[in-house]
TrEMBL record:
Ribosomal RNA small subunit methyltransferase E methyltransferase domain: residues covered: 73-240
Name listed for the protein in its UniProt record: Ribosomal RNA small subunit methyltransferase E
GO biological process: rRNA base methylation
Reactions catalysed, as given in the entry: uridine(1498) in 16S rRNA + S-adenosyl-L-methionine = N(3)-methyluridine(1498) in 16S rRNA + S-adenosyl-L-homocysteine + H(+)
Enzyme class: transferase
Record-stated family: Belongs to the RNA methyltransferase RsmE family.
Gene3D superfamilies in UniProt: 3.40.1280.10
Localization of this protein: Cytoplasm
InterPro entries in the cross-refs: Alpha/beta_knot_MTases, PUA-like_sf, RsmE, RsmE_MTase_dom, tRNA_m1G_MTases_N
Protein function: Specifically methylates the N3 position of the uracil ring of uridine 1498 (m3U1498) in 16S rRNA. Acts on the fully assembled 30S ribosomal subunit.
Gene Ontology, cellular component aspect: cytoplasm
An annotated Gene Ontology molecular function: rRNA (uridine-N3-)-methyltransferase activity
Amino acid sequence: MVQQYFYPKRLKSNDNIELGQEDSFHLIKVMRAVSGTPIEIVSSDGEKYEAKVREATIPTPIDILSKVTKKFELPVKVTILCGLPKQNKADLITQKATELGAHQIGFLEMDRSISSWDQKKRKSKIERLQKIAKEAAEQSHRTRVPKLIFLDGNQEIDFSDNLVIVCDEDIAKSNHPFSLKKTLEEHPNSHSILMIFGPEGGLSDAERQLLKDKGAVFSSLGPRILRCETAPLYALSVISALTEL
């Protein structure tokens, strides 16, 4: 498979560039690229180009060839906002949600969150997750890297998105008819969606009421109860199936 890298500037066909030190090392030492090896480069404005290695050195000189016209992003911008999970589940969510097309990925401390991110370490945690997202975006050949964010609580949630959906396990338990598929079909013109998921213990009654008061739509992900790291990935897959397949 052709390797892809992101480049921090705008590009055009026939440009000549150098990859950064880290990407050059990966391309030459890990992927064993040689002169003439084809690769793909995504510019800062999200345009993808076919390219080739001019010389197998570090930094690596690259010849930009032609623009790729195929679309690689979901037709709807989806932000997933997850209650802070325990252990390293944030890594898994970030990696897989990036592969599945999330536009933005966020974590927030909720009433039932088991984990807590020390304020002094939050910046380094987000930077590490941002790196995971970049690598996953390259691997899945996306044309943008999702932005990683952290929120202190529900009061910080931005409700300016076209549609805010809370995926609530209590709806699945109650046989309520509000499925995610039905919710999306009832809002066909939503081009930007914010999806909120609780942590391992789910949402508290106070959080449900706050989100309802702000106009969020509550939805089920089916009759089964999903783990906190599974739910956002399932939801992204449903959106992909309804909009891309």
